[in-house]
Amino acid sequence: MSDSFRLMLRALPDFPDDLPGFDSDSAPADPLVLFRSWLDEALAAGVRQPHAFSLATADAAGNLSSRMLILKNLDDDGWHFATSRTSRKGRELSENPRAAMNFYWAEMGRQIRLSGTVVELSRAASERDWEERPAADGAGNPEWQLYALQPREIEFWQADPGRQHIRHRYDL
Fold this sequence. Notes:
Blueprint: H1 2-11, H2 31-44, E1 52-58, E2 64-70, E3 73-75, E4 78-84, H3 88-95, E5 98-105, E6 110-120, H4 123-132, E7 144-158, E8 166-171
Antiparallel strand pairs: 1-2, 1-5, 3-4, 4-7, 5-6, 6-7, 7-8
């Protein structure tokens, strides 16, 4: 069984032949500009939920966990996401305020990795985010917290059907 499963996995296609190109030499100096450009391209290509990303956190002992979230905003404060302070990720961030994000758009063979420090944003911003949620009913949630990841590094990765993948890294 193990060999057949391994062979089945090896036979699956990696990437389509019609991936977009990426010239890292002409990438903008600002990674936010490149992210917004790639997001616009993902939207134009019909990528479902291009604002979804995996967030990896660790507790004080270094035990890792990851889950999918939605990007709320992107500005000078960082890359915004929200959760309850009492959730597992909220507790982990209070113990160890470092995290990694990964956006992956299979249809385009693209991913964007970020890692850095996470900060809590203001109470007012958190309340506004709670109220803007689709199921908002007017009742507040004092445990809801808006966070921002302030990246130390960002890597843009473009797959290539010939396996000549392109990486473009920003060290901030």
